[in-house]
Structure prediction request, 309 residues.
Amino acid sequence: MESVMRDMLTRIGGYERCVTEFVRISSTVLPPKVFYRLCPELKKGGKTSAGTPVYVQLLGSDPALMAANAKVVAKLGAPGIDLNFGCPAKTVNKSRGGATLLKTPEAIYEICAAVRDAAPSSVPVTAKIRLGFDSDAQFEDIAAQALKSGITELTVHARTKAQAYRPPARWQRLRDIANPDQTPIIANGEIWTPSDLFDCQTQSGCDAFMLARGALCRPDLARAIKAHCEGQPQEPMSWAEISELLLYFFEANGALYQRKYAINPLKQWLVYLQYCYPQAAALFAQVKRIRDPDDMRAALLGATAALAA
Ligand SMILES: Cc1cc2nc3c(=O)[nH]c(=O)nc-3n(C[C@H](O)[C@H](O)[C@H](O)COP(=O)(O)O)c2cc1C
Prediction:
């Protein structure tokens, strides 16, 4: 999730932490500007404007290089470092990064241990895995190797790489992790509604959860889950509120990057929003061919004004 979305979602509420998209570590120690670009929050104490910490995620296979980059990230003030062992992308996997490391659990240990060793002990190091690569046969070993390294928390996307993003998520497999030090385990995958989260809790035995696509489809999902837990279920945000967020998202991305680069993220977000808001489908149809930032701004303003009328 990128910085403007993180800022918006954490202001809506319900989140305790965010993680950046991954930075690929392949052959060098990256300069600070790369980390600042991915995580502008580093210039503001590593937190979103709502005060939610943002961990920087690294993806790579060379323990020494990952450790050297982790040192840079820690020095820049990241409140935590997360290690990615779940990315299914072919380009990433070809260079031995992401999910391909699930085939060699001991390599996951080496990377986690090297980063844990290099980062100051005050900086949490967390890892994110899947159940396995082609199958979940090695899942217990993958989790054990990650936990043995002394990481602070382990997030499990409850699918194999081969299962990609297809439902269901196998939440119950998280109960099979041997966890002698009681390291917190965070369950991830297929949480779209508050009731999905309660099902996930029952099946996985976890009490911490990571939201991903669900948060894009329903921007108030984390807040709604919290409200449910407190026995005060809330109505989902209205389309009028979402329309204002869309305009904000577009303008804020335009201010951060060149304005033309704000167009595609907006279209991508509309695709996700369609799952909860049929109005997003109509707006997507209206704007999908727009290439000019001024035209996009006018379309969004028009949509907001039509709702206010
Ligand atoms: C477009 C896209 C980009 C993603 N990028 C990352 C990433 O950079 N790092 C990461 O750990 N997971 C990434 N993920 C995976 C999600 O964090 C999450 O594990 C996955 O979508 C399953 O959760 P969900 O079913 O709630 O979406 C990405 C997923 C999608 C769909």
